[in-house]
Amino acid sequence: MTRLIVDTDTAGDDVFSLLIALRHPNATLEAITVCCGNVAFEQEVENALYTVEMAGRAGEVPVYAGCPQPLIAGWVGAEYVHGQDGMGDSFFPRAAQRPEPGHAVDELVRRVNESPGELTILAQAPLTNLAAAVVRDPSIAQKVARLYVMGGGDGNITPAAEYNFFVDPEAARIVLNAGFPLTLFTNGQSTGDILYHLLVSTAYVAWSLTGVVAFSFMVSCMTDAPFGAIFAGVGLYFASLILDAISSLGSIRYVLPTHYFDTWVDLLTRGEFHANLWRGVLLQLVYITVFFLIALWWFKRKDIKS
After folding, report:
1. Rounded distance between C-alpha atoms, residue 141 and residue 139, angstroms
2. What is the C-alpha separation between 67 and 75, in angstroms, rounded?
3. pTM of the model
4. Of 7, 9, 13, 168, which one is the catalytic site residue?
5. CATH class of 2-270
6. What integer pLDDT is reported at residue 251 of this predicted model?
């Protein structure tokens, strides 16, 4: 049984993974923390509360509001993908359950310290909450059973940047270098992974897990979104949910990626690597120029001798 905390910027894509965490028999979802991300922060909190209600868990899983803004950069939303309410412009009614009075960052620190080595965290939002928590108490990085992060990889908001890392790159860099036992689910999984998990996660959520009401709710969050009609029309709207589903199922070890590897990861934030890159390029140009001048001198010397 996996004791789980999900950190989310709740929109239609996160609904899929939250329903898995809320309903899977191998998971005990102990708390949901909400971070800035997809849509207006207050709306994300409402979406998380309503998802808990639709999963039949109202009043059982606490929801904590966290950081409404990135650490440094200005907030960038994704309403053009998920609709103004993040749920395909469905504008669901307000849930009866309300957010807890505590702050998400305080709760993360408290819960991890109270249960060292026992809690798994799934972070599927920009990493602002996690970064603030580990800055407040660096020791929690070694007390988490495992941290699963959905972020990075191929660009989906710019050619080079994935959305979660783009929204708060400083937070992502803090978390990646904090010493967590970390598994990173990146955008741009292989085609084999996508097809495999599409079949497994969709079938599992649809039939074994959520039931008719929750599954219908999940579908309605997507099919009314700006791009939802296109995806639904060709049967591909699940594409925007797959990475969330993979990370959620992976965090409770129901299914794992078909391949993975250990690597060092860091993040370009404000150009510090660009400076090193250009220094390297200039150094190579110096080497090439010196080599060219020596070669030119050598051949001219040979011409003079001949």
Report:
1. 5
2. 11
3. 0.76
4. 9
5. alpha beta
6. 61
